[in-house]
Amino acid sequence: MRKRTVIGGLLAFVLGVGLPATAEAGVGPVHHWGPVRSAAGHSGHATADVWITDFSAETFVVSGRLRDRDPHPGHCAYIRARFHYSGGGTGWAQPRSTCEASDGFRLSSDGEITRVDVKVCVLDRSRRTTSHCHVDAIRAEDIANWPR
């Protein structure tokens, strides 16, 4: 097999699979939190493959791939993050949604945080409402002992 063919095949694989948004942006060390899926009770669902930066980062980032797994027309995948700041108070990142099979997302804080709530829902575009939401609360102590 020729070298050019192998390199071209590897490049096509990486472009097809994609990288987490934080790896593409060069934000630094990331932790794979895993999939967060909207709640049951609906024939379709939304899923987010979530990656996070270190909690010690000045700007905390939640990123990854958002997937729409709902066969109903007009139903899409939706994700939003609520940041709990070290100095007190909370703030919401702008929500992201997609009606595509898969799309990248990046949600960032305005400062250091102690916790982030990642919310994944099914979005009804015509009614502009969300349903079947599931929230994962992620804290620094949840990932403190993960292997690096």
Characterization of this structure:
- By secondary structure, the chain is of the alpha+beta class.
- It has one domain (19-143): Immunoglobulin-like.
- The protein has helices at 3-17, 21-25, 140-143, and strands spanning 30-37, 45-53, 61-69, 75-85, 90-92, 96-98, 103-108, 113-124, 129-139.
- A hairpin with a 7-residue loop joins strand 1 and strand 2 (45-53).
- The longest helix has 15 residues, at 3-17.
- Mean pLDDT is 82; it is low at 1-26.
Features:
148 residues, alpha+beta, Immunoglobulin-like, 5-stranded antiparallel β-sheet, 4-stranded antiparallel β-sheet, 9 strands, 16% helix, 49% strand, elongated, disordered N terminus
| Total count of strands | 9
Task: Just give the CATH class.
Answer: Mainly Beta
- DSSP strand content: over 45%
Low-confidence stretches: 1-26
Tell me the CATH topology: Immunoglobulin-like
Per-chain topology:
Layout: H1 3-17, H2 21-25, E1 30-37, E2 45-53, E3 61-69, E4 75-85, E5 90-92, E6 96-98, E7 103-108, E8 113-124, E9 129-139, H3 140-143
Antiparallel strand pairs: 1-2, 2-3, 3-7, 4-5, 4-6, 4-8, 8-9
What's a quick, concise take on this entry?
This protein is an alpha+beta fold.
